Amino acid sequence: MSRAALVALALAGACRVDDLALDGKQCPCAAGWTCDDATDTCVRDPDVDAAADAAGADGAPDGAAIDARSGDGGGIDAAIDAGAIDAPAGPSCLGSAGGATLFSDDFPDLIGWTTRGGAWSAAGGEAVQSSTAGGLTYAFPAGTESFADYRVAARARRTGGATTGAMELAARIQSSGDGQYHCAWVAVSGDLRLAWTRTNGSEGGVLAQMTVNVGAIPGYDATAPVVLEARAVGTQLTCCVRGVAGATVTISDTRYATGAPGLRTTSQASAFDDFAVSAP
């Protein structure tokens, strides 16, 4: 669930307002109140009070639902803090934990995302790129084009396409064109590479690469989900695959200093989840 949705839920749960007090008011009475015929005034129906207490948000009577959510550790604060779970759980392959969350998405939809090439959709809480054709294919969230130093992570799984195809993270995507860095994992062969794309959309070349002998990994499944991570700090670029020993590459490059983080594929259909961007 996204950070905004969590806050909305917390606010909705916290907003309980006591009914207007009608004790002593002249009949007729509103729902939840009964008329005392002897005095012709309204009194609270005790059955309604009991039902309201039993159905309270925290199982507490009357206004305690609001009190339980106030102060440190209240429901709203907890919901906001829970946004951290949008990032893939587990230790980072970048060697250290990231800082404050800058953006995260669990893909209930792709509203606010810009897509380029391919066939992008949101399905089952994943961002799905279903085309296996070649060509430039990527997506990035609006409002992140001015980001400079950050790390990005996402859970990714291969769903089809060429055995040489890759599922990728993109970094510093240029809003004025297609220029970007990208961290590509070829799950079938175990190839990991950091590459760049020119602002005209053509391949610029590979900056750094390595190959993992995935055949030596017990029970390895090229279609199983993996967590991809990338980091850009100044001119230093790093790319890794969490849980795959040795799957890390790093390089220094000066082409792009700012730009959006995103998702990308090369000749492969892929599904992504738990997209998270944080301070490096």
Architecture blueprint of SSEs:
Layout: H1 3-14, E1 33-36, E2 41-44, H2 46-54, H3 64-69, H4 75-81, E3 101-105, E4 113-116, E5 120-123, E6 126-129, E7 137-141, E8 150-173, E9 180-186, E10 191-197, E11 203-211, E12 226-233, E13 236-241, E14 248-252, E15 260-278
Antiparallel strand pairs: 1-2, 3-15, 4-7, 5-6, 6-15, 7-15, 8-9, 8-12, 8-15, 9-10, 10-11, 12-13, 13-14
Helix pairs in contact: 1-4
Outline:
With 280 residues, the protein is mostly beta strands.
What does this structure look like?
The two termini are 23 Å apart. Helix 1 packs antiparallel against helix 4 (75-81). Helix content is 12%, strand content 41%. With 280 residues, the chain is mostly beta strands. Residues 1-20 and 48-85 have low confidence and may be disordered. The protein has helices spanning 3-14, 46-54, 64-69, 75-81, and strands at residues 33-36, 41-44, 101-105, 113-116, 120-123, 126-129, 137-141, 150-173, 180-186, 191-197, 203-211, 226-233, 236-241, 248-252, 260-278. Strands 3, 4, 5, 6, 7, 8, 9, 10, 11, 12, 13, 14 and 15 form a 13-stranded antiparallel beta sheet that branches. A two-stranded antiparallel sheet has the order 1-2. The relative contact order is 0.18. It folds into 2 domains: 3-81, no CATH class; 87-278, Exo-inulinase, domain 1 (Jelly Rolls), CATH 2.60.120.560. It is elongated.
